[in-house]
Design brief:
Elements (H helix, E strand, L loop, with lengths): L8 E5 L4 H12 L3 E6 L2 H13 L4 E5 L5 H15 L4 E3 L11 H26 L5 E6 L14 H20 L4 E8 L8 H8 L1 H10 L8 H12 L10 E4 L10
Parallel strand pairs: 1-2, 1-4, 2-3, 4-5, 5-6, 6-7
Helix pairs in contact: 1-8, 3-4, 4-5, 6-7
Length: 254
């Protein structure tokens, strides 16, 4: 299927590892130009170089998205470099799972406010696009405390789903679609579940067995969902929360 993303301009936060890296690669493979950020300058440079080797226009910067001024300035500079924006994917997470105040503050600043600030900085550019979309990356931990997401992590991921749903209604008249992708356990080298394989094998196996498909997911499986929702192929989909979890969350959504 041709997703009609050739030449589209996409901004992704946290685009150097795991799900974020798979997302930028998937957009690049569809012919999109990509701007990405992460905190590690070397990883950003390596990722940009790899995308360019694949023939994709790419740019990147080392940014801490909890730094409001730096993050908003980067969104503006990325839009200028790409000649506009068609899609924004807030993907960064603090991955803070404690009950303590610092965990709540970290999740609030890094996950929720970075999505809000990114939308506000990108909105003028998105309103000029003929295929404007925002795809927010949340988690099934917003609904499933059994995965260890019942603390700050799960609560703020739930807030992201609510934010995206409300934003879809707000921006619909401007032709901007807003959707959420909520991954289940996604396994990749150096990721949370990869580390749990060694540190807590019982929990790792329990999560595997809880999925209807009997396995953890792969980053590229999440990326395909993101790219589809961002594309003109999904032109009548907005306000949706697409769970990419292999059937980990057995729920009926209304």
């Amino acid at each position: 299927m041709d997703l009609s993303l050739d030449g589209k301009r996409v901004l992704v936060t946290g685009g150097t590892r795991g799900i974020g890296r798979a997302i930028v690669e998937a957009f690049a493979d569809e012919g999109a130009a990509v701007a990405l950020c992460a905190r590690d300058a070397d990883e950003v440079a390596t990722t940009v170089a790899e995308l360019e080797r694949r023939g994709a226009p790419a740019t990147g910067a080392a940014i801490d998205v909890s730094n409001a001024e730096a993050y908003e300035a980067w969104v503006e500079s990325a839009a200028a470099e790409l000649g506009g924006l068609d899609t924004v994917v807030p993907n960064v997470s603090a991955l803070a799972r404690g009950w303590d105040v610092s965990s709540w503050r970290s999740m609030f600043e890094t996950d929720l406010l970075h999505a809000v600030r990114g939308y506000e900085a990108a909105a003028p550019h998105l309103k000029r696009s003929d295929n404007a979309s925002i795809v927010v990356i949340s988690s099934v931990s917003a609904n499933l405390a059994g995965l260890g997401g019942g603390q700050a992590y799960g609560a703020v991921k739930a807030a992201l789903v609510s934010f995206a749903s409300q934003l879809a209604q707000e921006l619909g008249p401007d032709g901007i679609r807003v959707n959420t992708v909520s991954p289940g356990p996604i396994d990749f080298p150096g990721g949370t579940w990869d580390r749990l394989r060694a540190s807590d094998p019982e929990r790792y196996q329990r999560a595997r067995e809880s999925a209807a498909l009997g396995r953890h997911g792969r980053p590229e499986e999440v990326a395909r969902a993101v790219v589809f929702l961002a594309s003109p192929t999904a032109s009548y989909i907005t306000g949706a929360n697409l769970k990419v979890d292999g059937g980990t969350l057995p729920a009926v959504d209304y």
